[in-house]
Amino acid sequence: MEEENNENGKIKRVFINTFIILIIIFILIYLYARYSEHSKIVMKEYRISNENIPLNFSGIKIIHFSDLYFGNTTGVEEVNKLVEKINIMKPDLILFTGNLYGNNIKKEDELQKILLKLDSKLGKYAVKGNNDYYDNYESFMESINFKILKNEYDLIYNEGLEPIYLCGLNSSLKEEINFEVCNSYFNEKNSNIYKIYMVHESDITKKILNNGNVDLIVSGNSLGGLINIPFYGKVFLPNGSKKYNNDYYKIEDTDLFVSNGIGTDKKPYRFLNKPSFNLYRLKSLK
To answer: What is the rounded (10 degree) CA torsion for 168, 81, 99, 95?
Structure first.
């Protein structure tokens, strides 16, 4: 009887110790996801080769970042770190695919001073995310020298006569996308121009491709699912990024890149999903 009681006591202690260890692990994971991982900004680098890239654009570096959500888990320190990392790469072109602020617009002057330091040779462009539909978004982005593409396009030149084409679409979660202006540029003579589309939500990809050939699509919105659980996957995927939320897809002849973003939305956590921005190096196959 005494031996049986001792055995039951051992089992009980093992159970209690295991339970305590699991609670400690859960608390540590929570603290890491809530207060640590969101500050570990990394760069993801990709080489993009395409026969439509002009020779004068071979070697060009494009920086793409998204979903700053400034004021949530992204503060002045994180934005300073981001800008420093971007400028070290000396990008030729910078693309921002939306969602500048978090729940509250604050420290606007400080954010403006930091983002003004972003430097690029060929320009800085932005599109609206679903959180960017407030009065002064456009004036703010223009004050830091970003050109906003609202269902419209621009031609980008680099030391030569042959440009690349850049189209920016508004958030599909907020308004109907109009392809008419973007498609108005094309005819038989310029159909082989290298085409880049900037969008906020990646799930609009099929709609874009149904309206014509595109070489490169860059998007945001997904935040990488915020929390990634091994053998399960992404936990929190927002509308607009349910289908395409991995880093990269090859869809026929189109390269699609989905940024994991810098900040967090209403759920202030990141786990196994560091905030990141992308660097694309173009290579001409001509």
So the answer is: 0
Instruction: Collapse the DSSP code of 199 into the 3-class scheme (helix H, G, I; strand E, B; otherwise coil) and give the result.
Output: strand
58 DSSP 8-state letter? T
Residue 182, judged by CB atoms within 10 A of its CB (0-12, 13-18, 19+), counts as buried
Q: Is residue 178 pLDDT above 70, yes or no?
A: yes
Q: Residue 115 CA to chain centroid, in angstroms?
A: 16
pLDDT of residue 3: 57
Q: Are 198 and 95 in contact (CB under 8 A)?
A: yes
Secondary structure element (H or E) that encloses residue 20, with its range? helix 2-35
> Which DSSP helix (H) or strand (E) runs through 153?
strand 152-156
Q: Write down the pLDDT at residue 172.
A: 95
pTM of the model: 0.92
Token pair belonging to 187: 């005819």
Q: What amino acid is encoded at 248 in this protein?
A: Y
Can you tell me the distance from the alpha carbon of 269 to that of 260, in angstroms, rounded to the nearest whole number?
13
Cβ atoms of 65 and 262 within 8 Å: the answer is yes
Q: How many helices (H) and strands (E) does the chain have?
A: 6, 14
Find out whether 172 and 201 touch, Cβ atoms under 8 Å: yes
136 residue type, one letter: N
164 φ/ψ angles, rounded to the nearest 5 degrees: -115, 160
Q: How far apart are CA 256 and CA 234, in angstroms?
A: 19
